Amino acid sequence: MPVTRYIFIPELTTFYDDRDYPQKIATAIKKAITQKYFKAHSTRQEASDPKDSLFRSRFPMGGILELQGNDESELSPDYISRRCTDILALSSDEQRTKQLSAFIKKVHVKGFTLPFAELDLKEREAAQRQSFDFNPIEDSALQLTQPPLLYLKKIRPELLFLLFTDHQFFLNFENWRHYNAREPKGRGCVYDLFHATTTLCERLMTPSKATLTMEEIQTLHKQLSESVFANSKEDKRGIFRESCNSFPLHYDAVTIAGIKELLQRIKSDKQAEGFRIGYFKKSLIVSSFCNNMSILIRQEEPWKKFPIDEEDVLTSERLKELEEFERLELERLEALAINETAKSKNIPLEDVRAIIKPFLQDFTPHKRVVKSHYWPNLSYYYSDLSTNYRHSSPKAEYQYDLGVARSHALASAGNVTPPAVNIQDFTEQELEDLAKKIYKEIQGGANIHLFTPEPTLALKWAQEALQKYNRTIPHTQNAEEAIQIIDDLVHELEILHLFYDVNCRTNYLLMNFLFLRRSIKWATEFNPNRLDAHSSKERVLQHKQAILRTDYLIANQEQLAQYNERLDLIYFANLRHLQTVQYTPTELSAIQVDAQYAEIAQPLIDKLAEFETLFQATLNTLLKKYDLPQTAVTPQFFPVPPEYMPFVKALKQLQSDYNINDFFTRVADLELVVEIREDLKRLQTLTGYNAQSLLAEIPTVEYS
């Protein structure tokens, strides 16, 4: 009879979903056995008790592996250790996963349970997709049958955030709070998303021209970047970038076909200042300089060269001598640190000087420490700066690194010079081979970026894409064709990266606004960054799956709301340092959540309710106008047009089910009087009905 045991693994929550999780889990098990804290429990509750754990102060960071074997001997430490040794010797994570799944059945992390086979997010995505009734041929499944705002109102208020956050996070036990914590400045990025969506809903409620302008995109970006640029010295909200930039091609956001399309684009553009693809590596010049300054100050001990007793009162003359000494000593140390940085980094000395000199002039580190114990304080400060600049490069250093990376690109075209690879004359097979090479490098962990065009060129191409969109979108014949045209635009805007930050969020929200404006359902994307480097065909498929994901969310709201409520409680339990891995109802019963979400979401909730009230009021007004009582007298003196009765019937049905598609289909064949025709146009504007116009073919019939 199979035997089940449970073991606690420290820090499991920090790596269970990493790309190389099979290797890390096998290593963690071996480490637990080697360091004698491997302990097999007969129940999960025993394994969840932190009292006897060496790691009780960080217990929530851990997790529990549920092991299963044919007998006790297969779950002994020695046997499992040997298995893990063999597993670590395998050549691929796929092989390691298969071998680990033979005895690890489930993983318990963050208060949730996952089958071991679904640790990989791709497996969880695939499992969710299987629950969709996905038929790529059915165009009707993509189309709205209700006004866009009433369609959005079908979603419970507490789940509205799912519309514009990456669904991969929600499947990985994170909700809006975790998303917001990544960019908490200002009012938070989730507030910005709700604020911008509310504004877009207002636009859907009012008549507007069919064309999309660059100014509207800038306005959207300005709202979405309020928090990102909060308290910044430069206001970059809605401002186009003025220098080149780049973004990483993430392993989950690329395919071979998508990379090949980017390569074909680079080849056809033939622009040296256009797109390029290549490795991006931080030089860390400023970080290295700061570290060298910290070390040099400690080694040189400049305070001994100008000794001062703390009780001494410095005369003005002596003070001037001290200031002059500090100035000269700083210049000497800075020169030494610059030389050491250039030498250790193997970077031309003039390049290092060109970055460090402006940094020292603008940032003036030597003026940011107190004079008491000046040199030791300055050494510590430079050490802290070195750490900070390892994570975030100053602008000048970033632009230098970008220039070096572009000059060594794996793919460029036009008038480019070596060592950049010019693919202008590559054959299709050579492009295919290069795409496969780049894809393999990215999957292997290489930091490969798409380098964007020079700003003026990027804006020119964006305007051209916008003109093409405005020219073609009115002539679409079906939902899939409209999705393709909208995707062409937002993909172009995404890879052009017109703004300093918040490009993907801007384009994702823009895409869904354009979908709603064309009577297409909202697309809840698993990973919006797949806009970057999936092929055109693959992106359209992603959008269609994302539309069905929204249908899935609407159909399963009760279950998802309970899941989200538990995520909220666990989030606050962690803030309060609750030492648990199970998060039982008893443990969570004392946890209170705040009202932040209600405050953030309320304007959008109110806007959707406002539209429903307006819509019902409009229908009531029309019914009062057309639902005329028929008397014995009226037919003779004031005949009611025969079209009124079916029109009233259609209005009542619309009032009941909100099905605008059915409504406009039913009234399309009526021979209408002028006033009905005008009211239909007003209804069409109010409801955002943007399917092919049926009214254009309706003749105008006047009754006398």
TrEMBL record:
It comes from the Bacteria. It comes from Legionella donaldsonii. This is Ankyrin repeat-containing protein. InterPro entries: Fido-like_dom_sf. The lineage of its organism: Bacteria, Pseudomonadati, Pseudomonadota, Gammaproteobacteria, Legionellales.
